[in-house]
């Protein structure tokens, strides 16, 4: 088994995700991470995540948004949507059941396979959405079309409607995208796209869009269980899709703990991991940035108290990340039409780091089309 240094691994992840890129160094659709998708959650979402990866501003011709992995909205290249629909489809019946959570129980009790149920929902969604349709309207019409095993009583809504995950996971299969910036979400047909309707599963994904392989591609050193958690899949399905061209690695000085499991790096990437060198790049990453969505959080932030603060359940802050290392957290507040960024350093910050944070705060303010009032500490 190969041994790698933790810093090298984080540097390699940081650079593989283009986080070292200069502003507008890449075209709107050039960041490689769009092969896997960039989650669009939070006040800045995917547009900010792509900007800090050096991408120029995008328009509708460049990017499209869809509910995919974990039922979350993600940005993709518009030209890739047909391939993405296949790649993000369930891998098997067991995988589909795991992805829809508690929705699988009533379906199975009624003798309805989950894959069949997802295809049924997708077919209805396709038929209903002939013009841009607000999620609530689609939900109301869909609820009237399906039987009881598809439905649940929703206490927050005080209404009966479809389980949430099947609703979301079927949408791209129906050939539907999310209109950017809409709240509540508006769905519409993707021009020129023939809906997949679960005819092809994720097992038929093109290699460039394979969601299992891409987790290792963009985060070398993940364990198999980390990918299982990220995909909300089953260990068996991920094992079946696990790349054969991997090298088992151990992180120098890491205590593997009671659930010892090797980390993996794609063989073609091992030299790049060893050669990764600091560039001094510092970024303000949003709370749901892909770099922070990885499931081996203890590697990224070894200190438990800081881990709990960064990934708190409510009011999650963003992360100040320098060359792959989280060095603090940040929050932004708008008052009087001006943006204030409050940072909480982890340890002492040198002057150069503070200057870099101020530069990135100004970049965030410009992204939000606001003047920067100040960068403060609590």
Features:
378 residues; alpha+beta; Arc Repressor Mutant, subunit A; Aminopeptidase; 3 domains; 5-stranded mixed beta sheet; 3-stranded mixed beta sheet; 34% helix; 20% strand; globular
Helix-strand layout with pairing:
Blueprint lengths: L1 E3 L1 H11 L21 E2 L5 H7 L11 E5 L5 E5 L3 H7 L5 H7 L4 H6 L4 H15 L4 E2 H9 L7 E4 L4 E4 L1 H8 L4 E3 L7 E4 L21 H8 L5 H8 L3 H7 L4 E6 L11 E4 L3 H6 L6 E4 L11 H4 L3 H7 L7 E5 L2 E11 L2 E8 L5 H17 L4 E5 L2
Parallel strand pairs: 1-10, 15-16
Antiparallel strand pairs: 2-4, 3-4, 5-9, 6-7, 8-9, 10-11, 12-13, 13-14, 14-15
Helix pairs in contact: 6-8
Describe the structure.
The chain is an alpha+beta fold and 378 residues long. It folds into 3 domains: 21-203, no CATH class; 208-275, Orthogonal Bundle (Arc Repressor Mutant, subunit A), CATH 1.10.10; 282-376, Aminopeptidase (3-Layer(aba) Sandwich), CATH 3.40.630. The chain has helices at 6-16, 45-51, 81-87, 93-99, 104-109, 114-128, 135-143, 164-171, 211-218, 224-231, 235-241, 270-275, 297-300, 304-310, 351-367; strands spanning 2-4, 38-39, 63-67, 73-77, 133-134, 151-154, 159-162, 176-178, 186-189, 246-251, 263-266, 282-285, 318-322, 325-335, 338-345, 372-376. Strands 12-13-14-15-16 form a 5-stranded mixed beta sheet. A hairpin with a 2-residue loop joins strand 13 and strand 14 (325-335). Helix 6 (114-128) crosses helix 8 (164-171). The model has no long low-confidence stretch (mean pLDDT 95).
């Amino acid at each position: 088994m190969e041994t790698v240094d933790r810093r090298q691994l984080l540097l390699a992840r940081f650079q593989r995700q283009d986080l070292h890129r200069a502003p507008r160094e890449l075209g709107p659709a050039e960041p490689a991470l769009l092969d896997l998708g960039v989650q669009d959650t939070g006040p800045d979402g995917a547009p900010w995540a792509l900007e800090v990866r050096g991408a120029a501003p995008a328009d509708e011709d460049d990017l499209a948004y869809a509910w995919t992995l974990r039922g979350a909205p993600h940005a993709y290249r518009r030209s890739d949507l047909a391939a993405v629909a296949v790649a993000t489809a369930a891998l098997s019946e067991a995988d589909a059941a795991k992805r829809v959570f508690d929705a699988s129980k009533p379906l199975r009790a009624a003798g309805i396979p989950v894959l069949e149920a997802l295809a049924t929902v997708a077919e209805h969604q396709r038929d209903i959405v002939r013009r841009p349709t607000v999620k609530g309207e689609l939900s109301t019409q869909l609820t009237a079309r399906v039987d009881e095993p598809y439905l649940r009583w929703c206490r927050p809504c005080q209404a009966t409607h479809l389980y949430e995950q099947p609703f979301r996971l079927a949408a791209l299969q129906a050939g539907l995208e999310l209109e950017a910036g809409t709240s509540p979400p508006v769905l519409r047909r993707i021009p020129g796209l023939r809906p997949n309707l679960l005819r092809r599963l994720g097992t038929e994904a093109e290699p460039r869009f394979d969601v299992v392989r891409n987790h290792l591609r963009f985060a070398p050193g993940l364990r198999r269980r980390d990918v299982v958690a990220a995909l909300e899949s089953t260990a068996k399905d991920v094992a079946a899709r696990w790349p054969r061209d991997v090298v088992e690695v151990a992180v120098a000085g890491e205590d593997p703990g009671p659930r010892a499991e090797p980390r993996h790096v794609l063989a073609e990437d091992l030299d790049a991991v060893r050669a990764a060198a600091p560039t001094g790049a510092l970024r303000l990453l949003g709370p749901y940035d892909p770099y922070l969505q990885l499931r081996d959080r203890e590697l990224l932030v070894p200190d438990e108290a800081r881990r709990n603060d960064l990934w708190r359940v409510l009011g999650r802050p963003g992360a100040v990340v320098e060359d792959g290392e989280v060095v603090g957290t940040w929050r932004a507040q708008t008052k009087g039409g001006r943006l204030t960024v409050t940072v909480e350093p982890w340890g002492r910050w040198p002057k150069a780091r503070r200057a870099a944070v101020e530069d990135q705060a100004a970049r965030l303010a410009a992204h939000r089309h606001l003047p920067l009032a100040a960068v403060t500490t609590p």
